[in-house]
């Protein structure tokens, strides 16, 4: 059973100590929700044609405690769920990229326990290195912020690190169907990756109208899955 067949989703967001831009792609999911559609119908009733596509979504904004938690550049958010209390069998988890010294034990426990039970796992920036530190990415293809790729290869050699804007890989999943791992490079690549994930799973007109066009996001053209130039700006053949 694919995510696209579900009429309700539970999405966990690991965003403590991350770059704020790493997790803004969550807004794309929010724009596909029944809650958002209900709000915008008051402004444009023609969007009622998308009611059959809208998704019931519950978001879990995670941290070690429920106290206000920092993301860069100094913004604080109030988590609504701790790592210890969060359900492990989520539909999607999005992991942003914190500094490499930020490795709460409760987050590592959550990752290891939720990994086989969660259908889709998305990472942006060095979020993939956070996952890799727990061992769950051993033997899998992944990517991370391009500037940290060589370091990732040295620090975490059991992962097959690829120089792409995002990488899609199958992951273990205890439920019906296949599990999916989507890992992205920097924050911009993460937004494009999430846009592509949405387009791959739900009605394209619905996704473009409710999420991509209004926010002016698009994973096409120069914003596709592969880099057009080397890290030093040299055009790739």
UniProtKB/TrEMBL annotation:
Keywords: Glutamine amidotransferase
Keyword Chloroplast: no
Pfam families assigned: DJ-1_PfpI
Domain DJ-1/PfpI: 48-171
Family annotation (InterPro entries): Class_I_gatase-like, DJ-1/PfpI, INH-QAR
Record field: transmembrane: none
Keyword Glycoprotein among record annotations: no
Protein name: Class I glutamine amidotransferase-like protein
Lineage of origin: Eukaryota, Fungi, Dikarya, Ascomycota, Pezizomycotina
């Amino acid at each position: 059973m694919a995510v696209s067949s579900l009429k309700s989703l539970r999405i966990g967001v690991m965003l403590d100590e991350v770059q704020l831009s790493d997790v803004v792609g969550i807004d794309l999911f929010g724009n596909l929700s029944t809650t958002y559609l209900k709000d915008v119908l008051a402004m444009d009733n023609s969007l009622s044609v998308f009611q059959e596509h809208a998704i019931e979504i519950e978001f879990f904004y995670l941290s070690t405690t429920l106290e206000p938690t920092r993301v860069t550049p100094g913004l604080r958010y109030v988590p609504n769920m701790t790592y210890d209390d969060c359900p492990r069998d989520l539909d999607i988890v999005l992991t942003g990229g914190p500094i490499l010294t930020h490795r709460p034990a409760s987050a590592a426990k959550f990752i290891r326990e939720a990994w086989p039970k969660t259908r889709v796992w998305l990472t942006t920036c060095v979020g993939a290195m956070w996952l890799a530190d727990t061992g769950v990415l051993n033997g899998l293809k992944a990517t991370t912020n391009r500037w940290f790729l060589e370091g990732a290869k040295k620090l975490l050699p059991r992962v097959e690190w690829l120089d792409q804007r995002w990488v899609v890989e199958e992951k273990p999943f205890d439920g019906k169907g296949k599990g999916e791992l989507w890992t992205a490079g920097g924050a911009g690549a993460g937004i494009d990756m999430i846009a592509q994930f949405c387009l791959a799973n739900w009605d394209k007109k619905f996704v473009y109208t409710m999420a991509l066009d209004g926010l002016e996001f698009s994973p096409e053209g120069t914003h596709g899955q592969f880099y057009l130039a080397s890290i030093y700006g040299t055009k790739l053949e």
